[in-house]
Amino acid sequence: MRTGTDVLDRMHHIEIISQLEGQNLEHLRDLVDAATRTDGHEPLGEHKFLRMKHGDDLALGMLALKGERLVGYAHTLWYGEDGERRVSCEIVVHPDLRRQGLGRRLLATVVEHAEAQGASELTVWAYNDSAVSRHFATEFGLTAGRHLMHMHRHSGPPPHLAAPDGAAIRAFQPGQDEQALLRLNNHIFEEHPENGAWTMEDLWGRMVQPWFRADDILMLEVDRRLAGFCWLKVEERRDEGYVGEVYVIGTAPEYQGRGLGRYLLSQALSHLHERGVDAVAVYVDQSNERGVALYWSLDFHHHHVDVCYTRPLR
Questions:
Q1: Least crowded by CB within 10 Å, which of 88, 137, 172, 223?
Q2: How would DSSP label each residue in 256-301?
Q3: Using only C-alpha atoms, what is the Rg of the chain?
């Protein structure tokens, strides 16, 4: 008796890679474009994608192939030390081949490989969380963890706030500020599961992207000492026009509570207004009540929620 799994195994095979390049990279872009057109949002986060593109000992990709056609993809990134190693995963399946068990097989491959490598926890991101992703999570014993709110602000006059005492904004200086920016980022996001352990390669990987402009990084100084930064990312997005994303924003812990974050964000909104964006987007963890309140107060509104599902591993 032939089962659905038997048929799936003959139709597709999964190949594990450590770097995205050449034909695989080209085919993945086609797959992501097809999924984005259908779902209205990109299925993969930039952080893991850049790690896979440049090659990384902590990143792996799983290619689901039908002949030579890429029809599904998953990638993983490892965090933490031995004994507490976590694996974070994202999955995309071509819209034409959904509801055939391919996503389940990809996730089962991820789980099997993660357990074989001694991971203690698996997290899976569901972008623009839906009933389908919730059902999928239940089937694999995953429970909702982090909720990442995606908030939007329509184009319009930015708020005008006076600079706090000693505060000034300047543009990022390529060739001079890289090390200082990297140290500040990792200091601000020390407890963050993804942003707090950037390497110089992570920084450079973003600076060679088509959307990068040095003047889109606003450096906040207080009494001429670096106290925070706001990195902006402007791209054309389907059906939304030019969107300015507040890509990364933060102030050093020792400078918090002085109104600097609000001032920095207001300057970022002014910068994006001058660039003529149609909307401003930001991601903020739903548990960050102060951050959410700040965005509400500056006329951002709820757009959608991304959910990070998690489960322990053997």
A1: 223
A2: TTSSHHHHHHHHHHHHHHHTT-SEEEEEEETT-HHHHHHHHHTT-E
A3: 21
